[in-house]
Amino acid sequence: VAETHLAELAGFGLATVLPGRTSTPQAIGAALGLALEAGPHISTGGDLALIGIGPHQWLAFAAQAGDDWAEALDARLGDAADVIDQSGGYRLFALSGEGARAKLQQGLSIDLDPPVLVPNAALVSQIAHIGVVVWPREAGWIIAVPRSFAHDLHDWLASA
Amino acid sequence: MSERLASGGLIDRSRTVAFRFDGRDYTGHPGDTLASALLANGVSLVGRSFKYHRPRGILSAGSSEPNALVTLREGARAEPNIPATTIELYDGLVASSQNRWPSLQYDALAINQLFGPMLVAGFYYKTFMWPAALWEKLYEPAIRRAAGLGALSGQEDPDTYDQAHAFADLLVVGGGPAGLIAALGAAREGKRVILADEAARMGGQALAERGTIGGQPAAHWADAVLAELAALPHVRLLPRTTVFGRFEGAEYGAVERVSDHLAVPLPGQPRQRLWKIHASRTIMATGATERPIVFDGNDRPGVMLAGAVSAYLNRYGVLPGKRAVLVIAADSGWEVTEDLLDAGAAIAAVIDLRGALPAALAERLKASGAAVIEGGAMIAAHGGKAVRAITLAGANGRAQRFACDLVAMAGGWNPNLALAAHLGERPVWDEALAAYVPSDAGELIPAGAAAGRFGLASVLASGAEALHAALGYDVAVPFATDAPHGQAAIWQSGPCKGKAFVDFQHDVTAKDITLAAQEGFTSVEHAKRYTTLGMATDQGRVGQVNGHGLLGAATGRSMAEVGTIRPRPPVTPVAIAAFAAHHRGAHFRPIRRTPSHDWALQQGAVFIDAGQWKRAQWFPLPGERDWRTSVDREVKAVRSGVGLCDVSTLGKIELTGPDVGALLDRLYINTFSSLRVGRARYGVMLREDGGVLDDGTVTRFGENRWFLTTTTANAARVMQHLDFARQAIWPDLDVQAASVTEQWATYAVAGPLARDALSAAFPDADLSNAAVPYMAATTLRWQGRVIRLYRLSFSGELAYEVAIAAQHGAALLAHLARTGADFGMVPYGTEALGVMRIEKGHAAGGELNGTVTAADLGMARMMSPTKDFIGKQMAARPGMADPARPRLVGLKPADGQSAIRAGAHLIRPGASPVIANDEGYVTSACFSPMLGHPIALALLAHGADRHDETVIAHDPVRGPDVLAQVCDPVFYDPEGARLRG
Question: Looking at this predicted complex, what is its ipTM?
Answer without folding.
Answer: 0.97
